[in-house]
Amino acid sequence: MNKKLSETFSAQINKEYFSAFLYLGMSNWFNQKGLRGMANWTYVQYQEELAHAQNLHHYMQYRNESVTLSQIDDPSGSWQSPLEVFRHVLKHEQYVTESINNLATVALKANDHAAYNFMQWYVSEQVEEEANANDIIDRLVLSGDNSNALLMIDDQLGARTFAAPVVPGLPAGA
Ligand code: OFO
Q1: Counting atoms of ligand 1 from 1, which one is nearest the CA of 15?
Q2: Consecutive 10-residue runs of the chain (174 residues): their mean pLDDT?
Q3: Is the dihedral of CA 148, 150, 154, 156 positive or negative?
Q4: CATH 1.20.120.920 fits 3-68+81-157, yes or no
Q5: What spacing in Å lies between the alpha carbon of 147 and ligand 1's midpoint?
Q6: Residue 107, pLDDT score
Q7: 54-88 in b/e burial notation, b at 16+ Cβ within 10 A?
Q8: Closest residue CA from atom 3 of ligand 1
Q9: Exposed, middle or buried by CB within 10 Å (0-12, 13-18, 19+), for 172?
């Protein structure tokens, strides 16, 4: 793997861990507001981000590449409402989409088709991540100031469960 590609993978691993921390912070915020369903949804998102980071890391190990681990930024946010949190989710995922696309482009430019293929799962995953955030934002906007509607959305988000993602291109059991 060329140096630039390897460094871009390492940077992406750091971003995925940052994403995990950001969602953990959001989960804590929702929990403090008594919105347990949203706390659950963001906690499941935290678990997903950890899996994203771990799978990138497994991939680098599979390719016998070293990973540079660096400090994770402080993810604390000061949100005023659930809508503001989910708008932050969308903005953050759009940023991650750009970063994932960039990693795939670096792989392609390096003529590393294996890495490019591996990244395609992440490319598709970002479509889902942005769609999920958009969907929740739409429902929160529709609910307006109606606390019954808010609690209904909270209930729905409480049903989300974590399923470890299966990413093609990794050895079995990774
Ligand atoms: Fe939220 O996305 Fe990871 O990759």
Answers
A1: 3
A2: 97 98 97 98 98 97 96 92 98 98 98 98 97 98 96 98 94 78
A3: positive
A4: no
A5: 30
A6: 98
A7: bbbbbbbeeeeeebeeeeeeebeeebeebbebbbe
A8: 49
A9: exposed
Tokens of 101: 């696309």
Place of tokens 């060329």: 2
Paired tokens of 85: 């949190």
Ligand 1 pocket test, pick from 8, 19, 47, 103 with the greatest ligand atom count within 8 Å of Cβ, gives: 19
Dihedral angle sign, alpha carbons of residues 108, 112, 113, 116: negative
Domain chopping of the chain, boundaries: 3-68+81-157
pTM, two decimal places: 0.96
